[in-house]
Design brief:
The complex is a heterodimer of chains A (293) and B (326). Chain A is built from eleven helices and two strands. Chain A is mostly helical and 293 residues long. With 326 residues, chain B is mostly helical. In chain B, strand 2 and strand 3 form a beta hairpin. Classes of the chains: A mainly alpha (293), B mainly alpha (326). At the A-B interface, helix 3, helix 4, helix 9 and helix 11 of A face helix 5, helix 11 and helix 13 of B.
Amino acid sequence: MDSLFLQQVLNGLITGSVYSLIAIGLTMIFGVMKISNFAQGDYSMVGAYTAVFVMAWVGGWLGWIGSVVAAAAVVGLLGVVTERLVFRPLMTRWTDIDMIMVSIGLFILLDNLAQLFFGATPRMIGDPFGGTTVNLGVASTSLLRLFCFFFAGVTIFCLELFLNRSRMGVAIRATSQNRFAAQLMGIDINQVYRITFGVGALLAGVGGVLYGTLFAIYPTMGALPTLKAFAVTILGGMGNIRGAIWGGLILGVAEALGGNYIAMEYKQAIGFFIIILVLLVKPSGLFGRKEGA
Amino acid sequence: MSARLRNILLWIVALAVLILIPFVVEDRYFMHIAVMAGIFTILTLSWNLLAGYTGQLNLGHAAFYGIGAYTSAILAMQTGLSPWLGLFAGGLVAAVFGLMLGFPALRLSGPYLAITTIGFAEILRLVAMNWVDLTRGSLGLSGVPLLTPIKIGDFTMQFYFERDYYYVVVAGVLFTLFCIRRLIGSEFGVTLQAMRDDEAGAQSIGINPSSYKLAVFTISAFFAGFAGGLFAHFARLVSPELLALHNTFDILTMAMIGGLGTIAGPILGAVSLTILSEALRSMEEVLKIDIRLIVYGLLLILTILFMREGLVGVIKNVWARVKGDR
């Protein structure tokens, strides 16, 4: 194996870890609330802009880490607010079309509010480590990108702790398995929805800081993370968190290799080819449980 | 007066108004808006045929629009085919793509169908961007021929000004409306609505939902392609932008605000939103900002939350109240 190949795999894993993070938020919200949130990528966009402002204020590596925390708080709150105002009223008269369309409405709204407030000029998050690169023997990458991978991993680890160890986390998992049984056990279902949506948005927000660190930041950037997150979610099975982790890494590596060895122009389409293939061959996703489980 | 007679009179009055509009308003810019409203009416009617009557959410409708536009433009520019035939050729090619997408899409519903159709449109948009030999890439095809003049005896109808295209588009809308009304009113249409409301029930009386859905997918794509052809010869510029997701979002916003699953809804939605968006555009000079899409997003959310039946529902309610007071 030549080093270019390994280099691409490493790049793909780093990008993929960010996809995983954003997709976990999406898949959690779907698993618990059966909402396909097309505005998910816009939560990432808001997270990325939070980072732009925090970095302008603090700067350096402290600013970068601070912006991850700030984005988590800001976007988590935004998630809770939008859940209450936009999605909650629809939970009682739930239909697929209404839920998808209302999230598309939210997508259009957030996209264009961002254009209004932040202007159309793309922004970059400067490298707080001054472009330091790290040589890993077979491949090399910047310290900042390694930190992105690291932060994505830490966030996912924290989420696992939250879901497995806290009372709320257990309630969320219970609701995702059987909403009615959970209600019968005395779980406050609205509280579960609020927290699930908040955490789901928060993950997209943190993912947005990392996504914005790897790529450019502009008001309409949200469409790509949304579509990637859906690709990852379908690949891993809708509602399946483990599946989203592996799905993100697979999509990241597939894009890096496909962009390099097949056609750069069609790099953004690779996710869609994967979706169509998965849906034709194994609609429950690579890591999906059987239907109805 | 019998209901039938009243209906016919209503149609005659509506038609007369449509024909007379260009004589009253001579502003070319206004006519341009009217043409676009007509094209979006066709798109919204055809999208609603699938979403409103079968409950399937196609988020790749703009792809059919783009396919129709490219087909008609390329045929006219490279083979010299009459643009009039090109309009229908565009529709047919779009219908073939609709059939192709319909087959795998049949097995999917809800978010799976939504994301697959987005993927379909995005892949085709990338093809339009990168197949430079055929499409000239992101530059797009410019200088698409105008519709050719029609000679009736000594009278020659030229298609040069916005007003001329206005009449073509009105005819196109009426053609679409006629076909879709016939379809919905027929046994076929009734079956569709039965399927949408209770698929298992419909299957139990021997209806095969797959073939019905496939047929609607194809017909819906045909009209979107037809609208694309109209756009190509009117705007004379076809670019990959036509296939972009935001066009589909415009279409579904119009359908939803007008009233999903009705025939009047898409027309109301497309016309009122096109006018509204132009009004907002002219306010841009005062406000210094473009709030058009912010309003679109807000209206879409509010419609779903508070007036699910759309404008059609509101009008029905008001009408019922007026009648009740008498």
